[in-house]
Design brief:
Radius of gyration: 22 Å
Number of strands: 24
Order of helices and strands: EEEEEEEEEEEEEEEEEEEEEEEE
Strand content: over 45%
Largest sheet: 11 strands, antiparallel
């Protein structure tokens, strides 16, 4: 009996955080192979697995798509022996990416403005902004924070990715990979990105639980940015990898509202 693994790792981050491995492995029984997947990350992942089998019958429809929660070790399917006397063989491909494609945003949630209470900032680019908020990023927001201004968590969650070592930025797309950022996982499975932070401008750690209104970092102009500002977006994972942004509302002195491009808002 022989086994051939063709393994495709796809980790769909816009950000550059290195993932821990997601392992797919087998446990052999008298009448079947039990296939397990183990997620070694502190965040959920979506995994897509397919098999090309010989003398093996899968116990569920292929290709398989499922979600593994943080540190899950799950029996995702079985391959039953159909003619064990003649041996068996299989090839498998799999890919995985951060987040659950089944996450559902809590649309009733009111976010906190991600800057200091009492400070007022202009929303320089809003939802579907002409400069860069298009396609999957259309529900992003740019706040006109100055260099080193304080950034606060708009919603509580767990820090799952960050970068603060970059000191480069500019209005050319080639600078995109140099953005400093923080990514926070919310309890409904969505994420928030806080981007363009200054070098060494992160005040949290991977795995840290943060509360709404907690200081998390300092604004800058790293990455694809024409000047200092905070790029903020709430997003969820989409099938195949990558993300789609989500329209959200904020608590302000005028109530719970959708923010409008060109308007200024007071931290509340």
């Amino acid at each position: 009996m022989k086994l051939f693994w063709l393994i495709l790792f796809i980790f769909s981050f816009v950000i550059k955080q290195e993932p821990a491995a997601v392992n797919v492995y087998r446990v052999e029984h008298s009448d079947r192979l039990k296939i397990f997947a183990k997620n070694n990350n502190i965040f959920p992942v979506t995994i897509e697995v397919d098999f090309d089998t010989e003398n093996l019958e899968p116990t569920r429809y292929l290709p398989y798509t499922g979600v593994l929660n943080s540190m899950d070790n799950e029996n995702i399917l079985d391959l039953k022996f159909s003619d064990i006397a003649n041996g068996w063989n299989y090839e498998t491909t799999y890919k995985y990416y951060m987040g659950s494609i089944f996450a559902k945003h809590d649309d009733s949630f009111a976010y906190r403005l991600p800057f200091k209470k009492g400070k007022e900032y202009r929303l320089s680019q809003g939802f579907e902004g002409a400069y860069s908020h298009k396609g999957d990023l259309r529900y992003s927001l740019d706040f006109s924070l100055s260099l080193s201004d304080e950034i606060y968590a708009a919603r509580g969650g767990v820090v799952v990715a960050l970068e603060e070592s970059n000191d480069r930025g500019g209005s050319l797309v080639q600078y995109m990979e140099y953005a400093n950022y923080i990514t926070i996982l919310h309890d409904d499975g969505t994420f928030a990105d806080y981007s363009h932070l200054m070098k060494n401008g992160v005040d949290v750690e991977i795995g840290q639980k943060v509360r709404m209104g907690q200081l998390i970092g300092f604004s800058g102009a790293t990455g694809y940015a024409s000047g200092p500002h905070l790029h903020f977006v709430v997003k969820k994972t989409k099938k195949g990898g990558g993300y789609i942004s989500i329209p959200i509302k904020f608590t302000t002195k005028d109530g719970i509202i959708s923010l409008q491009e060109g308007q200024s808002y007071l931290g509340y």
